Amino acid sequence: MNTPRTMFEKIWESHVVARGPGGRALLYVDRLLLHDGSGAAFERLARRGLTVRRPGQSLATADHYVPTVGRAAGIADPAVRAMVERLQHYTAESGIDYLGPTDARQGIVHVIGPEQGFTEPGLFLVCGDSHTATHGAFGCLAAGIGSSEVEHVLATQCLWQRHPKVMRVTVDGQRGFAVHAKDVILAIIAAIGAGGGTGHAIEYAGSTIRAMSMDERMTVCNMSIEAGARAGMVAPDDTTYTYVQGRPWAPKGDRWQQVLAFWKTLASDTGAVFDREVTVDGASIAPMVTWGTSPETALPVTERVPDPSSAPDPGRRASMERMLTYMGLARGTPLAGIPVDRVFIGSCTNSRLDDLRAAAAVARGRRARVPALVVPGSGMVKAAAEREGLDRVFQDAGFEWREPGCSMCVGMNGDLGRSGERIASTSNRNFEGRQGKGVRTHLMSPAMAAASAVTGAIADVRTLEAR
Amino acid sequence: MEPFGTLEAAAVPIDLPNVDTDRIIPARFLRHAPGPGYERYLFHDIRFDDEGRERPEFILNQLPYRGARIVVAAENFACGSSREAAVWVLAANGFRACVAPSFGDIFSENCAKNGLLAVVLAADVCAGLRRQLRERPGATVVVDLPAQTIRGPDGVRHAFEVDGFRKECLLRGQDEIALTLSYEPAIAAYEARRAAEWPWR
């Protein structure tokens, strides 16, 4: 009998083109996603006199820099317009599908990949963005890469990769009331630390993960990089197949049966050995919120801001003190009740239909007390939400309903907070300055963010939502 | 790409863990390509005040560390965003090597693509190096890639691991795309196999 293998190992092995020195492997890239920050890679490729090797295996959109209001009028900022036009130019020249700012399918690259069926089980998929781990929710190997690597893939459709270690994170148990996928991944990051997954690919397993929708699994895999892991993955199952079937890039007809049989071989074999095993009790996870400037500072919303003197070493203590100063928080303050100035619901972590439904359920019939922004992940998500009337729910509650893009997660398009403001955000990073210079970010789920909007403070959503 | 051999240079200690690439170069500068003035973006929002004046308390603004070409950092240095600009902006300031107990994986790869070396050493060794560098501002560190050692200001050598592929590429200043293009027959063979075995891809 063959040695039991992990899903990671099966996918890795099936992509080895050649082996190089030092245990490196040249891996074949099935799919490359491109965005408006990818233009420099095309420019360097052109300067070398090279062309795109396999344009049919790439998909491009504009997400990081596009405005989320007044898009029909075009992009006002000339520098941004030039970047978007540059991507349009290079993709047209090389024959790559491009979903531009006015395309009904445009959106955040990690939302549209799955939506278009571009993301499938078993693939090796890369993108010049660290949240590419999102796609691993489909049981593929998906990793964020740098700009030089994007150029390398455009030129060769391959990448030299070092074999990472593989960690399995098993989450078992039924989630509690108003506990969402975001709470699960924040609890995992708090448990293993912001560097806990460094050098690893993570496979998420267990009944809590298995019970999740694809939107929820994407939220979990998305933040693998916040635990230091370039890739996070979930074995495909009927939830996956049902999601993929019938999408534009998905296999059709006889080929569907063929591909389904193959996908069913991908899951880790019983007895497969992982380099590290972590277990998390899914039933004990509470709604989470971060208090500091690293995603590992997530705590149950019922907790208080910690005391740096509890830190295990002087380095950690100095770090915690700096975080408290930046965040304008005093040790011992209950997290619930900290006033917020602004709310952002969106990003590649939490801008899909499930996320908008969860936020709308809290906003319905209530009124935002602070400015609140809802930015759907794609034109398709936006249209689907509008068919359900979610746009009306948000607008009736005083939330702004915007056009799709990365928006206030990274602020490259100008959607930023003001210095000193405190933002309740469904995005993935609470780093210093991430949402604007001097802005203080608290990460949480869409339901928790909506609860913060309607109360004007960080709030335990369980006190608002009827069971 | 400039080959990397042995580097003897002043080093700057950065004590905080989890320094993210947003802090190394804030997102609003990513629209600019490296060029004149690019070096100012490095650690911009902690290095300069709101009027663009240097903050004297920030270590890179202190005279003995200005010529530093090596960073000695703490855990999980350059985590977060995949922005290669974090490497470009370090390079624009003359940096060629970073030493830390761990790095963001993507940053570490991005370093190698630009001729910079990211060296992993044990946390206590890094802490000891940082302490020496604070006690003796401007002290030099020697990074010897062929021998895979780092020599601290106290003269003590520490061996480090580097995978053979990365070492070869850095020593030769090897352009990776040129290297991979030489594997064309293997790539073509894989593509033929892929079309036969996984025709839906």
Written account of the structure:
The complex is a heterodimer of chains A (467) and B (201). With 467 residues, chain A is α/β, with parallel strands linked by helices. Chain A has two domains: 7-276, 2-Layer Sandwich (Aconitase, domain 3); 290-463, Aconitase, domain 3. Helices cover 31% and strands 17% of the residues of chain A. Chain A is built from 15 helices and 19 strands. Chain A has helices at 7-13, 39-47, 78-94, 109-115, 147-156, 181-192, 207-210, 214-222, 238-244, 254-263, 314-327, 353-363, 379-387, 390-396, 446-455, and strands at 16-19, 24-28, 31-34, 58-61, 97-99, 124-127, 141-144, 158-162, 165-172, 200-205, 231-233, 276-281, 288-290, 298-300, 342-345, 372-374, 400-401, 422-425, 440-443. In chain A, strands 5-4-3-6-7 form a five-stranded parallel β-sheet. Chain A has a five-stranded parallel β-sheet with strand order 17-16-15-18-19. The longest helix of chain A has 17 residues, at 78-94. The termini of chain A are far apart. With 201 residues, chain B is of the alpha/beta class. Chain B has one domain (6-173): Alpha-Beta Barrel (Aconitase, domain 4), CATH 3.20.19. Chain B is built from eight helices and seven strands; from the N terminus they run βααβαβαβαβββααα. Chain B has a seven-stranded mixed β-sheet. In chain B, strand 5 (140-144) and strand 6 form a beta hairpin. Chains A and B meet through strand 2, helix 3, helix 5, strand 8 and helix 10 of A and helix 4, helix 6, helix 7 and helix 8 of B.
